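Researcher: Last one for today. Full complex below.
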Amino acid sequence: MSVAEKIPVVTIPSPKRPVRRNGRWAGYWHLLWARLLELKREPEVVFWVFVFPLLLAAGLGIAFRNKPVQAAPVAIVSGAAADRAEALLQRSPRHASFKIDVLDESAARKGFRLGKYDLVIQPDLAGGLRYLYDPARPESVLARAEVDDALQAAAGRKDVVATSEITSSEPGSRYIDFLIPGLLGMNLMNSGMWGVGFALVDMRQRKLLKRFVGTPMRRGDFLAALLSSRLVLMIMEIGLLLSLGVIFFHMKVLGSIFTIVLLGSIGALCFGGVGLLTASRAQKIESVSGLMNLVMMPMWIFSGVFFSYERFPAMAQPLIKALPLTALNDALRASILEGTPLVHQWPRLLVMALWGGISFVLALRWFRWT
Amino acid sequence: MATAIQCRDLRKTYDGKVEAVRGLNLEIQTGECFGLLGPNGAGKTTTIEILEGLLEPTSGEVSILGHSWRENERELREWLGISLQETRLSEKLSVRETVGLFASFYREPRSTDDVLEEMQLTEKADAWVGKLSGGQRQRLAVATALVSNPKILFLDEPTTGLDPQSRRQLWDIIGEFQGAGGTVLLTTHYMDEAERLCDRLAIVDYGQIIAEGTPADLIERLGGHHVVEFAISGNSDSAALEIWQELPSVESVREEDGMVGLSVREPHLTIPALLDAIDKQGHQLEHLTTRQASLEDVFVRLTGRHLREE
Ligand SMILES: Nc1ncnc2c1ncn2[C@@H]1O[C@H](COP(=O)(O)OP(=O)(O)OP(=O)(O)O)[C@@H](O)[C@H]1O
Ligand SMILES: [Mg+2]
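Model: Here's the assembly. Have a good evening.
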């Protein structure tokens, strides 16, 4: 028989009069509020979650902004026929797209080797021209084609097919349009993993989790508050990045804000779950940092944050598409840039739900409070 | 009187190697202030955390207010106030926010401001926890325990690191809590604290209770209420210890660093005889003090070691 059974249940008058009664959700709201206060008061959090992605977007957006193609630097080897070649080029209607230098052969070749010239034109003895170019350098190939075209036309070639041109650099197809949804996805992953995982291990290390468990706090409420704090932050992250895109880069957001926020919530919860799992047993900040980088690294590379994952071999595509960040990035791009409704995106939503859901269930099973 | 805390044959082995608690029995009545006293690594924290339901014992039974942790955890949590030996509360929350957060977990907590006032933290109510001194943090930790309006207060080394004045304040608060019908279980290294605060205490060493009783009881068990300590010129070999044992009213003898300590019932009988004996041996008396026996003496007597020895 256990000790507990032998002793009668006793009730002792409380030493002091209680002053208030707490409702069912008091703990949850206080935990959420405390978490948000802590985040707000942590300058590092404000920087990494809000300022850093904005700087990144602004920096990359400016670096890769679409600018007019520069004049191709072309060298002509000096000699008898050099003047004629230069004159022909200058007469061409496209002369503005070349920058021509005339110099001796060794200087021209040296300049070409160093990347100073895209193309070297060497008049030969028979009155023809020889191009020196590098087939592995796109700008060199381009310069060759353009120069040849200009020279032939200037020398009197007749074009047999009538062609005309339209140029396109509409918002929606530029690099910044590709980049901002990707950054948003990456940011949701980073802050979800760190915001949940790091916070938990930190509290475990400080014995604060143990102290909480020593109260009647509902453990589910605690985790729910932690994930909810992520949702609040997510809305701010989306708002900031999209405003940056719209205001400074004249990005066009085609999907509804509601859809985008819903997607963001699913993404934030998904990575919250993964973060929870990553942090479910670690005792030290150092060990969880390594683990989180290990989990996030493949997604930084493969999930199409900065460039399209279509460049990876076809064999790897199914694996890449099964990553939660790929699903989130694709879904965000489809919603923001094309206005694709959520119902058409269910495979992506499923990928995220599975990652988040399975992680959450496993995390609850393995979680260590002490 | 009803039993507040009971445990029987409690054992805890960490990782199958470290036997931190080995067969510990306790029975603490409601309204009592009970102390666990022992050197570093004795197993005090392990014991108190098992009683708090935060650690699973390797074997043994625990009952709190007649309930077991397995069956009634949630209800029990409402009734306990806990302060762990080492908790680092969130540095970026204010004192009031921290206590308010803990209060929100309980059905019927006390008013945050009352508790802050009681713990003399009102002045610091809006300061961030990170900006508090060590002693103020310690008081805050106790405040988070008191705000639950508990029936039992578990305090693991509540006064370590406090200045003498703050310690006395905390003693008063514990006394008040007890006066209102609360039960207290605390651990400490400090003898004076145990003597002053505890109705009963247990001395723990290597995971076992080596003595238990009221402070006066334990000192009584030492055999004498007084300690006479002296040193003499020349080397007193250990054979000489027996001579001291023969002196009138001497209960026990020990030697340490050339100082001989006698546990004595009636010093006025012992001291003249002692002086005579030293004279007869041809030694010079170099040092002589008498004082009241303390728990420290009890501990040294029982284990041959000092309590604060690292
Ligand atoms: N988590 C743990 N894993 C392994 N061994 C542990 C663990 N916690 C405590 N111990 C060991 O158990 C023994 C008792 O430790 P405990 O913390 O209970 O001592 P204590 O009496 O509270 O000491 P102190 O006065 O220093 O606080 C020690 O030898 C300690 O090394
Ligand atoms: Mg301890």
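The pocket of magnesium ion (ligand 2) is lined by residues B 44-45, 85, 156 (CB under 6 Å). Chain A touches chain B through 39 residues (CB under 8 Å).
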